[in-house]
Automatic annotation (TrEMBL):
Transmembrane segments: none annotated. Residues 56-161 form the DAGKc domain. The lineage of its organism: Bacteria, Pseudomonadati, Pseudomonadota, Alphaproteobacteria, Caulobacterales. This is Diacylglycerol kinase. It comes from Phenylobacterium deserti. Keywords: Kinase, Transferase. PROSITE patterns: DAGK (PS50146).
Length: 340
């Protein structure tokens, strides 16, 4: 009782991972109020991967499908979570980002993506490795790993809110390529292997086709950038995205570019065999634009599309569309030992 009074009471310096001597010494219990939306039909979950049991205090919604997704998101919003963990692939992310703002009316929480789908392009961009677990995502969120990404928003005429939100938009040859990718998925080809196989098959189809039909003929559409009136043109490819890193190091929008970017290729594509390497590597030889390969940095584009388009792997009917860069969202990224 009469001894010296310590400078401060003994005990831990604070709560959370940042104060632990090592992550292995700490049982991860989230100090963040997290909720999980799980798609049990995503590829990894269907394959029987056993998820780490959610720590106490984490609310889990196992989605029963699109017809119940709004209800599931509404329950997570009502719980006032500040971290939304999406356990699924790019399609699950697209559906959640499209619907969630209607539920999280006070503002979107941070988002973590567990790459569980056939394609996981957003997770790749964020640096999340395959097999990234809920526990690892919570740990990275506690350590402050975060990156900002703005989804693409697709609007129809007269709409006050987007019909869709996603990250990779494509038309013309991209729709055909997406159909090839779906065939590959049915054969068990996924992720980078799927990208490589689809690209190779698309190039072969284009190089061996005729200018007046099939892949090389392209599609007649009207396109206008940043408020310009849409003008009709024959395009082999329209591709747009806000992602910063694509699989296999592909850089069709140019090296080191950010924001909403687009690539257009005139139909029929000229000098394709020579153009493909610099286009995919992000290089810009002097002849490329004159040959009909053009890169665009923009905020919005308007489109009249007679057929269909693809957003994050799903095909939708065309028509009159506006595609714009949406408000930025905050995504959890791997930190420390979780960084690939």
């Amino acid at each position: 009782m009469d001894g010296p009074v310590p400078a401060r009471p003994p005990g831990p310096a604070g709560a959370g991972l940042r104060y632990a001597e090592s992550q292995g010494d700490l049982l991860v219990v989230p100090v963040i109020h997290a909720g999980v939306l799980t798609n049990p039909r995503s590829r990894r979950n269907l394959a029987g991967a056993q998820p780490t049991p959610a720590p106490a205090g984490v609310q889990v919604e196992v989605s029963r499908g699109l017809e119940t997704l709004d209800e599931e998101l509404a329950r997570l919003a009502a719980a006032r979570i500040d971290l939304l963990v999406i356990d699924g692939g790019d399609g699950t992310v697209r559906e959640v980002l499209t619907r969630a703002p209607r539920c999280f009316t006070a503002g979107m929480p941070r988002i973590a993506v567990l790459p569980s789908g056939k394609t996981n392009v957003l997770a790749h961009d964020l640096g999340a490795p395959r097999g990234w677990t809920l526990e690892q995502a919570l740990a990275s969120a506690e350590r402050g790993g975060v990156a900002s990404r703005s989804p693409l928003e697709v609007l129809r005429p007269g709409a006050t809110s987007p019909d869709l939100r996603g990250f990779v938009f494509g038309a013309a040859a991209y729709v055909r390529a997406s159909e090839l990718a779906q065939t590959g998925h049915r054969l068990g080809i996924f992720n980078n292997l799927s990208v490589a196989a689809t690209l190779a098959a698309a190039v072969l189809q284009t190089l061996t086709g005729r200018d007046d039909r099939g892949w090389r003929a392209g599609e007649r559409l009207a396109l206008g950038f940043d408020g310009e009136a849409p003008c009709e043109q024959q395009l082999f490819l329209l591709l747009a995205s806000t992602l910063e890193r694509l699989p296999m190091g592909l850089a069709p929008f140019g090296a080191g570019t950010r924001g909403l970017r687009a690539l257009t290729v005139e139909a029929p594509p000229r000098r394709l065999a020579a153009a493909l390497p610099p286009v995919l590597a992000g290089r810009s030889p002097a002849w490329l634009e004159a040959a009909g390969y053009r890169r665009h940095a923009l905020e919005i584009f308007d489109l009249r599309l007679p057929s269909s388009f693809v957003l994050d792997g799903e095909t939708y009917p065309g028509g009159e569309l506006t595609v714009r860069r949406g408000a930025p969202l905050q995504f959890v990224t791997p930190v420390g030992s979780e960084t690939p």
